[in-house]
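Mods, move this if it's the wrong board.
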Amino acid sequence: MDFPIKSAAIKHLSLKDPLLRRLIQLSGIKQRMLEPDPFAALASSIIAQQLSVSAANSIWARLQTLVGEIAPENIAPLGEGDLRACGLSFQKIGYLKNISDAFLTQKLSNDFFRTADDSAIIQALTAVKGIGQWTAEMFLIFSLGREDVFSYGDLGLRKGMAWLYSLPGEPSREFAKIINALWSPYNSVASLYLWEVTLQGLKKRPRILSLYPEFSSIPGGEDFLDTPIGTLKIVSIPTGLSEISFCPPAPETHCACPLIIETKKQLREYFNQKRRVFDLPLSPEGSDAHRTVWMALRTVSFGQTLSAKDVAARVSPKTSIQAVTAAVQKNRLQIVVPSHRLVRSDGRPTDQRHSWLLAHERA
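Not the wrong board. Structure tokens:
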């Protein structure tokens, strides 16, 4: 039985996140096997902890030979000697006994898993010694097929997210929460694709070569674009766009860099009311805190406005208005990272250019 990837999930994720859309197109439709038997799924997770796949499979095969069906009523009566002979440590024997007892006493049941929501299932599972948060989240995805689960504790997901968004290190919880809100209600499906970054070895290559191969032939350059509200300076580096900023008037040089050419095209489409979402590889320079705010700004939809207080709330309860303001001032990717959608608490724009952009999008 495969994890059900619905066309609605692919459509939602592709519309909400251009970078994830690129990864989906590169990877194709992913299929992952589900283990529909809840007890077997949990027992398998316990056995596999800190073991290689081959070692875990060997223990599982010995256990099946010993009891036939791996079920709570078959595991509970076994003595330590029998389970040790299968290759289980004393600690894992205790954990398997705990899970068996939970099923036999109806603290956990198939009916409960069918009807309870994700948070209730995680709470019930983590109350059993031997089942942690990560195991519970993997169970929701790979046994119950729940569609909106993201496990921040999974190293592969953190590394995949860091690669996809060109982060200098692993994403903070706040950054991950912003992305999760963007992907919801299909975080599990997005996770399947993030794991592909590691499985396909993509993180060993520059992101622009994998997700944006059409821009990799001449990865660096600089040019200018005349717009209704001033001249934009556009700078490309080997990892993506590093700058789109307003500058004094300057002539276009018709740079041969494919990324510069495409950026100018998409910006013209934006100013001509023919584009609302940009599909460009960005490589902004800044701290993790600044990048988190910039990502929060990118989740503000075309034509929508938020105050600094609203954006701070999107980032985390601990983020201050001053931190948002500081990140906006450091933003060197104007328009594409839409700091112009940030308004004062009374809803007023800050200057004439800001006012023009808001009116342009509201039109």
